[in-house]
């Protein structure tokens, strides 16, 4: 028998410059080009670009490169409207029209299912676009830098910040708040946190906005609880922006911005703002997880409700329930809803939100899904519907085995990462579930991120070999 043909990897080395044509976009935002079948990932490119690139990482099956020059630009390219695009690490696709971004995201969902889980015949619905791809974010985090800058991290650099005067994916009101904070910080003379030597006082400013209620929260994050002049800042904010309902001081003395706050103090107003979503009211605190695109989050709930098909009397499990976004929406028709969440403050918030909305048939349980789920099944039996919305890393094999063991006839899987959704769905299919459809939604215009809702029904279990 003749051996299968193999493609030898071109003999490239780090630092080599090559010219290639970009044929598509990959999850992560980079363009994909090929040299005799050898894959090269290149940021800041568009399908159709002929680009000269410099290899910076060379592997047997692929390489990563930096863009040197676009020798012949793609017809898909457009002028980014934001003057900060490029150095800023926020948006990665402003050089593409919105329709082309949507096509790329839908393709990424299909490719992830096919290549990562061999799910090639799955029905993928047309992506649900945002009505307005600008000024959509209800939360932004801006970082102080020792050089006096206040802005967003530069792409790929934890210790560098691109100055941002105004961000086009947050509202004009939020940009006005950012301007007030910048002016106060410049006049205060207070030190800014240095991510390399871990010194300095001012770290970040977080702006949260209730898109439906109009309320705004402003939180200054510092390394110590004593910040001279912070009450003056609160006065400036409430005078300049009457919609500011909450001014907070959060303390993070640790080395990473991602660490939990040790304390949160109310400087003015309330410790939370109110928001409305799909006919429900929510209290949003500084550390509360809440979808950052309010308008598209409402469409996400509509999709989940429609696909779930809850008609009355069902028992529903909601895994990774957060503050109860799906739990409370589904509880309006279900018989009983059980929300599982490992973050205790989120569980407390979910219980408060249930009481706020007069919902008495939802129970929220703190703990690791892997451990709590089997106990819940033992206590109340298998659910009629199981919903899960895990973090970007996905649920993973150990949790998926517990979900399969829960024996729900229908599963709705909500995901913000198609590359982790695919293998998790593959496990469910292997256990006898059939995917009815996968519905992508764009909650994050101008980024590579894409939300998906998958609905699965239990079929005949696979027979042993």
TrEMBL record:
Its EC number is 2.1.1.190. GO terms for biological process: rRNA base methylation. One of its GO terms (molecular function) is rRNA (uridine-C5-)-methyltransferase activity. It holds the Pfam family TRAM. The active site is at 416, 416 (nucleophile). Residues 11-69 form the TRAM domain. InterPro entries: MeTrfase_TrmA_AS, MeTrfase_TrmA_CS, NA-bd_OB-fold, SAM-dependent_MTases_sf, TRAM_dom, U5_MeTrfase_fam. S-adenosyl-L-methionine binds at residues 291, 320, 341, 389. Keywords: Methyltransferase, S-adenosyl-L-methionine, Transferase. Belongs to the class I-like SAM-binding methyltransferase superfamily. RNA M5U methyltransferase family. This is 23S rRNA (Uracil(1939)-C(5))-methyltransferase RlmD. It comes from Candidatus Segetimicrobium genomatis. The lineage of its organism: Bacteria, Bacillati, Candidatus Sysuimicrobiota, Candidatus Sysuimicrobiia, Candidatus Sysuimicrobiales. The gene is rlmD.
């Amino acid at each position: 028998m003749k051996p299968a043909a193999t493609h030898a990897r071109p003999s490239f080395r780090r630092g080599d410059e090559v010219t290639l044509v970009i044929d598509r976009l990959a999850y992560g935002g980079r363009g994909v080009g090929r040299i005799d079948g050898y894959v090269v990932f290149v940021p800041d490119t568009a399908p159709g670009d002929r680009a000269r690139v410099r290899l910076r990482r060379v592997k047997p099956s692929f390489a990563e490169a930096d863009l040197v020059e676009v020798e012949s630009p793609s017809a898909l390219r457009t002028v980014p409207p934001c003057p900060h695009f490029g150095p800023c690490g926020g948006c990665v696709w402003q050089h593409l029209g919105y329709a082309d971004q949507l096509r790329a995201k839908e393709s990424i969902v299909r490719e992830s299912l096919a290549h990562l889980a061999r799910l090639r015949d799955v029905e993928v619905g047309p992506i649900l676009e945002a009505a307005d791809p600008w000024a959509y974010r209800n939360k932004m985090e801006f970082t102080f830098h020792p050089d006096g800058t206040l802005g967003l991290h530069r792409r790929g650099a934890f210790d560098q910040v691109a100055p941002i005067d105004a961000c086009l994916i947050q509202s004009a009101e939020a940009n006005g708040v950012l301007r007030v904070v910048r002016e106060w910080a410049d006049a205060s003379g207070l030190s800014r946190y240095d991510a390399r030597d871990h010194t300095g006082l001012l770290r970040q400013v977080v702006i949260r906005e209730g898109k439906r209620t109009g309320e705004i929260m402003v939180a200054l994050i510092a390394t110590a609880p004593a910040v001279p002049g912070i009450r003056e800042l609160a006065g400036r904010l409430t005078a300049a922006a009457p919609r500011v309902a909450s001014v907070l001081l959060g303390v993070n003395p640790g080395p990473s911005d991602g660490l939990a706050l040790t304390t949160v103090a109310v400087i003015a107003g309330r410790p939370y703002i109110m928001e409305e979503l799909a006919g429900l009211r929510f209290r949003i605190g500084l550390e509360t997880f809440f979808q950052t695109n309010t308008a598209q989050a409402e469409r996400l709930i509509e999709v989940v409700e429609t696909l779930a098909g809850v008609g009355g009397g069902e028992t529903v499990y909601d895994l990774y329930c957060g503050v109860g976004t799906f739990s409370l929406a589904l509880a309006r028709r279900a018989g009983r809803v059980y929300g599982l969440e490992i973050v205790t403050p989120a569980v407390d918030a979910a219980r408060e939100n249930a009481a706020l909305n007069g919902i008495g048939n939802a129970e929220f349980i703190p703990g690791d899904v892997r451990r709590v789920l089997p106990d819940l099944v033992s206590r109340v039996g298998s659910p009629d519907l199981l919903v899960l919305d895990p973090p970007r890393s996905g649920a993973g094999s150990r949790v998926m085995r517990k979900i399969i063991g829960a024996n729900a006839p229908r599963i709705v899987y909500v995901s913000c990462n198609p590359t982790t959704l695919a293998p998790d769905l593959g496990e469910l299919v292997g256990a006898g579930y059939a995917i009815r459809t996968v519905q992508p939604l764009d909650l994050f215009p101008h980024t590579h991120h894409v939300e998906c809702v998958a609905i699965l029904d239990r079929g005949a279990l696979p027979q042993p070999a």
